[in-house]
Amino acid sequence: MVATTVQLHEVTRSIEKSLLALEVSEDQKAFIAPIEQSAKLAASVDHFQIAILADEVVVGYALYFTTLDRAGKIPQQLKDSASRYTEIVRFLVDRHFQRRGIGTVALGMLVDHIRATHGATKIWMSYRKRNTASGKLFRKVGFRDTDVQEEQEFVLAGV
Ligand SMILES: CC(C)(COP(=O)(O)OP(=O)(O)OC[C@H]1O[C@@H](n2cnc3c(N)ncnc32)[C@H](O)[C@@H]1OP(=O)(O)O)[C@@H](O)C(=O)NCCC(=O)NCCS
Question: Ligand 1 centroid to 136 CA: how many Å?
C-alpha cells in the first residue's frame, strides 16, 4: 500500500541534482546503469526522462524511448499500429523507498503518460530474468512476457 502521493515530474535543473543522489542496493547495481549515464542517453533523439516524486521528494527515475523508426531497423512485430516503437529503458526507485508500492503506482502513471503524450499503443520493457523484483513489478502493472528472442538473460515484456 502506498501512503504517499506519487507524481511524475519533468527533469528540471534542481531535480537533476536530486536524481544524481538516487541509490539502488549493491545487488541491484548489475540491473541498471548509473543515473549519470542515463542522463547522457536522455539527451539523444527520441529519449525522454522523468523523475518520480513521493510526497514531493525525488525518489525515482525513468527513461523511455519512443520512435517512428525512421531508420527502419526495428522488427515489424515490435511496432504498434502507428508503426511506433516504445520502450522503457530505465526504471528505478531509490533503495530507501523501495517495497512501499511506489514503483507500481509510478510505472502505471508512466504507461498512461507515454500513451497520452506520444499515442503509443504498445510499450516494451526488457529485464534480466534474475531481476525478480522487476519482473514482478512489470507483471503487476499489466506487462506480459513474450517469447521474442532477446539477448541471453533478458526477457521482453509488453503492455
Ligand atoms: C524494481 C523496482 C523499481 C521496484 O520498485 P518498488 O517501489 O520497490 O516496487 P513496489 O514496492 O511497487 O513492488 C512491486 C512488486 O515487486 C516486489 N518487490 C519489490 N522489491 C522486491 C525485491 N527486492 N525482491 C522481491 N520482490 C520485490 C514487491 O513485493 C511487489 O510485489 P507484491 O505486491 O506482489 O508484493 C526497484 O526494486 C528498483 O529500483 N530496482 C533496481 C533497478 C531495477 O532493477 N530496475 C528495473 C530494470 S530497468
Answer: 7
Phi and psi at 110, nearest 5°, equal: -65, -45
Nearest-atom number in ligand 1 for the CA of 90 is: 48
Atom 9 (ligand 1) nearest CA? 103
How far, in Å, from the CA of 102 to the mean position of ligand 1? 9
Q: Between 4 and 50, whose confidence is greater?
A: 50
Global pTM reads 0.94
Give 91-134 pLDDT, tens digit per residue: 999 999 999 999 999 999 999 999 999 999 999 999 988 999 99
CATH 3.50.50.60 corresponds to the domain 6-158: no
